[in-house]
What we know:
Layout: E1 2-4, H1 12-27, H2 30-45, H3 51-69, E2 118-119, E3 125-126, H4 143-152, H5 156-175, H6 189-207, E4 255-257, H7 297-300, H8 307-315, H9 319-324, H10 326-329, H11 333-347, H12 371-377, H13 381-400
Parallel strand pairs: 1-4
Antiparallel strand pairs: 2-3
Amino acid sequence: xxxxxxxxxxxxxxxxxxxxxxxxxxxxxxxxxxxxxxxxxxxxxxxxxxxxxxxxxxxxxxxxxxxxxxxxxxxxxxxxxxxxxxxxxxxxxxxxxxxxxxxxxxxxxxxxxxxxxxxxxxxxxxxxxxxxxxxxxxxxxxxxxxxxxxxxxxxxxxxxxxxxxxxxxxxxxxxxxxxxxxxxxxxxxxxxxxxxxxxxxxxxxxxxxxxxxxxxxxxxxxxxxxxxxxxxxxxxxxxxxxxxxxxxxxxxxxxxxxxxxxxxxxxxxxxxxxxxxxxxxxxxxxxxxxxxxxxxxxxxxxxxxxxxxxxxxxxxxxxxxxxxxxxxxxxxxxxxxxxxxxxxxxxxxxxxxxxxxxxxxxxxxxxxxxxxxxxxxxxxxxxxxxxxxxxxxxxxxxxxxxxxxxx
Length: 407
Ligand SMILES: [Cu+2]
């Protein structure tokens, strides 16, 4: 089982290896292929339930191609909540990592692992980045908001809508250039971002009894587990059903994340040790191994469980706590104590250089999605606005309480 790691934890030597792999993949034409394929299926895999399973399968296929070049290759995930206040300051966007902003009238990317690349889809052009606010970006999504979604969404459709209209869109739009188009896979950022979206889905799947949860708008009416994952002829999904992509560790989904629950050891379906795309598994309503892996305090809160005890303390037993953070509201005191002790050791890391804790900053509102983005996806603008409004309400609620964000 391969383990996808946080982009923040990679050494310069590991970035060099990624550089070699993506350079080779580009010379073999795979960046063009994936950009074209993503554009071809675009309307079937955004704003629809297939959003999660399609992108899970899509990123995996790209990773598998990379492993033909370097058998150790995995796609790092980029937890973009980490630098949500000032995304341009991210260590992931330096000249020896993903590169920074585009330059010149065409906003060509001058540095990073794809520095000065020429792309061929949809036509020959330099790979572009164009930050949303000049040399900086508008704020992304605070980790507290994502934690709230993981805790409170009880069906896939609400979770998908929350993620798609918040962290998913904000990050694509922040980087701009190729990353904000239908052919976004031209920018390797796409795969690192979607690995993170996939990790959040996997956290949500494990957070309650929702491992096989699948509902919402499908291709024809209500989505079903035996729907075919939308595919482009250039990809090797075949007629794989959505069910084959639901559980990591099975049906060729041979990977996990360094900061998410491990795949269940025993699950109805095929435990496949190969990279084959065994799409025969279509369990519906099978009994999952019980109990499901429990999320630790840190996983509940976007990896850094610092706020679990703070949120509980600040919000006490009021109804806002139950509405926005039901998992924390339901925690017993022993569990809280355990998290609290992790909290104490982790707090050191939140000190800035002069030893002052940065906990007096209010949480920032996310920038709203642009109209062009909403139109390109055919989203219902009312729904997009509602998700944004709700995130702002949650942020107001936390900012008006005694809660102080450690981020
Ligand atoms: Cu996409």
